[in-house]
């Protein structure tokens, strides 16, 4: 069980410098430039990491260089927050190269999703730092980021107050409880594929008493089934206080008859856990995504209609 005391980063303020790093795959340079320009137009300064413009196969530079970039951004006193360029693949290769003691001594805003999940889990559990599952520079900010996504991001990283209810964007269905109930715990989680991949390693996720948030993209229902079953066999879903699953983007494109739908898989694998399970929340690989602060307290209550963040994620 993770007993690491929580550390909250200082909130971002206008004029602060944000470091942009590429800890996984290389990004499209036009999108990276557009995302950087958006942050600057919103009143922030931007400093690019050394590997943002590098390419080494499917990686944005060597493992040592990408890890050094991340460590350097945390160490730099003028950098007040760090946002990842994009996901892809590569963060698991960095977990043994990070300076967790340095990160713990220099807490700051850290944002990303998808492959960045491995960093959220390892940094959160080894340092206690609250991190943010949210939009990235090339993947979102460089592609006409939606008002919904930007406002949730801004509220999460600039306001030292609880986010409160996480509501879906307009004109889409509200999240649905497939298992009703009430749960309270700290948020954890991220990309299902990454979480499953770290099981059996020193960096596997601790779900005990926590609200586990899971998302993925482009995974056929049988693969969602396989990864959830893996988490069940590892006892991770049973240990959680409650479970939240996102709108799984493009997860039924490969579903050819005979097949289950993703929702049928979720009801089958999660429906008998005797704890609240909320599905179809927008926080993953969708154009509209809420930013979730990982490591702070939240509640799942049927009567509240969904997930409510009850603890501030930043300090003033």
From TrEMBL:
Question: LD-carboxypeptidase N-terminal domain spans which residues?
Answer: 18-134
Pfam families registered for this protein in UniProt: Peptidase_S66, Peptidase_S66C
Question: What's this protein's family per the entry?
Answer: Belongs to the peptidase S66 family.
Q: What is this protein called?
A: Muramoyltetrapeptide carboxypeptidase
The record's section on InterPro entries has: Carboxypeptidase_A_C_sf (IPR027461), Class_I_gatase-like (IPR029062), LdcA_N (IPR027478), Peptidase_S66_N (IPR040449), Peptidase_S66C (IPR040921), S66_fam (IPR003507)
LD-carboxypeptidase C-terminal domain residues: 184-300
- Taxonomically, which superkingdom? Bacteria
Task: Spell out the molecular function terms from Gene Ontology.
Answer: carboxypeptidase activity; serine-type peptidase activity
Q: Which residues form the signal peptide?
A: none
Please name the GO terms of the biological process aspect recorded for this protein, alphabetically: proteolysis
Is the keyword Zinc-finger in the record?
no
Name the active site residues.
Answer: 114 (nucleophile), 215 (charge relay system), 285 (charge relay system)
Keyword check for Electron transport, yes or no: no
Matching PANTHER family, A to Z?
MURAMOYLTETRAPEPTIDE CARBOXYPEPTIDASE (PTHR30237), MUREIN TETRAPEPTIDE CARBOXYPEPTIDASE (PTHR30237:SF2)
List membrane-spanning regions. none
The entry's keywords? Carboxypeptidase, Hydrolase, Protease, Serine protease
């Amino acid at each position: 069980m993770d007993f690491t005391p929580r550390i909250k980063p200082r909130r971002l303020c206008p004029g602060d410098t944000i470091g942009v790093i590429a800890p996984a795959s290389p990004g499209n340079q036009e999108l990276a430039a557009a995302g950087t320009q958006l942050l600057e137009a919103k009143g922030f300064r931007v400093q690019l990491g050394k590997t943002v413009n590098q390419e080494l196969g499917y990686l944005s530079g060597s493992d040592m260089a990408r890890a050094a970039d991340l460590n350097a951004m945390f160490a730099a006193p003028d950098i007040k927050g760090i946002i990842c360029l994009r996901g892809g693949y590569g963060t698991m290769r960095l977990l043994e190269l990070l300076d967790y003691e340095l990160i713990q001594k220099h807490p700051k805003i850290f944002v990303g999703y998808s492959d960045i999940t491995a960093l959220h889990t390892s940094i959160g559990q080894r340092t206690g730092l609250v991190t943010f599952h949210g939009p990235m520079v090339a993947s979102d900010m460089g592609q006409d980021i939606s008002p919904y996504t930007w406002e949730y991001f801004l509220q999460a990283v600039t306001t030292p107050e609880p986010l409160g209810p996480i509501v879906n964007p307009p004109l889409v269905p509200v999240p649905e409880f497939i298992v009703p109930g009430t749960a309270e715990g700290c948020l954890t989680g991220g990309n299902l594929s990454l979480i499953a991949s770290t099981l059996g390693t020193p960096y596997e996720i601790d779900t005990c008493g926590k609200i586990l948030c899971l998302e993925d993209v482009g995974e056929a229902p049988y693969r969602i089934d396989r990864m959830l079953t893996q988490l069940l066999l590892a006892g991770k879903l049973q240990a959680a206080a409650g479970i939240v699953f996102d709108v799984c983007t493009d997860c039924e494109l490969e579903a050819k008859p005979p097949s289950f739908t993703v929702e049928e898989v979720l009801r089958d694998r999660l429906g008998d856990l005797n704890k609240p399970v909320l599905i179809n929340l927008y926080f993953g690989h969708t154009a509209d995504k809420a930013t979730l602060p990982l490591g702070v307290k939240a509640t799942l209550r049927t009567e509240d209609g969904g997930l409510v963040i009850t603890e501030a994620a930043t300090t003033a």
